[in-house]
Design brief:
single chain; 294 residues; alpha/beta; 2 domains; 7-stranded mixed beta sheet; 10 helices
Length: 294
């Protein structure tokens, strides 16, 4: 026991009493050749999630009240690092991710990959709402663009990583899954994806997908946040460039009027043109400055 390295499985859970026991039991089947500990991060559940997890001999750390996914993830990392793990495997509590790839995930980390992502889109998806599928693909394209690495599933809730990745600061309140990938690549650590099976949810309801329209709005807001925080030149450049372009077009229209009927009586349009051009240039300049500070 003394010489063996420890695998820590972290499971964030909020009102998952119907699935947590079966998830833990299934995980154990693929950890028989490892020394491991299972850590459940209870995010203020009101049901019997904690009781069910403790029945399976899991370590449980509870928030006094529901704090959200990002804060729970930060707590996960703090508590997992206290166990001095060789590898941390983060997996959702709903039982949708097939854990049979755990041995492969462990193998890939031991081969030198710092962050291993279980990709649903590279594997098999039994069921996923169309709007969520489109949102996940859009997120992945954004993250691929920012990291300059092909990522097919930036939203996956099934990932394995070493202590170096666990110690990275995650400051976002909405995009922690993507932020971990971005910070990993920015620090020149290795990211690898492997395919996994994403099963149909049989118990409970998704915390992310109670309302498809609400999900769509939040997804696009999060995409904008990612660009703002990690690709400010593109984010502010697009906004500033759009305003400058609109100002340039109105300016051309004023030149046309000057050469034809005259611009008398178009003072408001002249002021608007100047505001658009100046504001656009200022926003673009801000984007350059923000990009330099990254």
């Amino acid at each position: 026991m003394r010489g063996k390295k420890i695998i820590v499985i972290t499971i964030p859970a909020f009102n998952e009493e119907k699935t947590i026991s079966s998830v833990i039991r299934e995980l154990k089947q693929y950890l028989k050749n490892e020394e491991y500990k299972i850590l459940v991060l209870d995010d203020g559940s009101k049901d019997n999630t904690v009781i069910e997890a403790k029945k399976e001999n899991a370590i449980v750390f509870s928030h006094p009240r529901n704090s959200g996914l990002a804060e729970t993830f930060r707590t996960e990392m703090k508590q997992a690092l206290k166990l001095n793990p060789e590898i941390i495997i983060h997996v959702d509590a709903d039982g949708q991710y097939d854990p049979k790839i755990i041995p492969l995930m462990i193998k890939e980390v031991r081969k030198g990959n710092d962050l291993v992502l279980a990709s649903r889109f590279a594997g098999k998806i039994e069921e996923m709402p169309l709007i969520k599928k489109l949102g996940n693909k859009a997120f992945s394209k954004v993250i691929s663009n920012i990291t300059h690495q092909q990522i097919t599933d930036a939203q996956t809730g099934f990932r394995a990583f070493n202590q170096k990745i666990a110690k990275l600061d995650i400051i976002a309140n909405y995009t922690y899954t993507q932020e971990q990938i971005i910070r990993t690549t920015k620090e020149k650590f290795k990211v690898k994806e492997i395919p996994c099976t994403f099963r149909k949810r049989t118990q409970g309801e998704s915390r992310l997908m109670s309302n498809p329209f609400d999900y769509a709005i939040k997804a696009w807001l999060n995409i904008l946040r990612v660009y703002r925080d990690y690709a400010p030149l593109k984010f502010f450049g697009l906004i500033g460039g759009s305003l400058f372009g609109l100002g340039f077009l109105t300016g051309l229209y004023l030149v046309f009027l000057h050469l034809t009927s005259g611009i008398e009586g178009h003072i408001a349009l002249m002021i608007l043109t100047m505001i658009l051009i100046v504001t656009g240039l200022q926003i673009i300049l801000f984007g350059f400055l923000a990009d330099m500070k990254k």
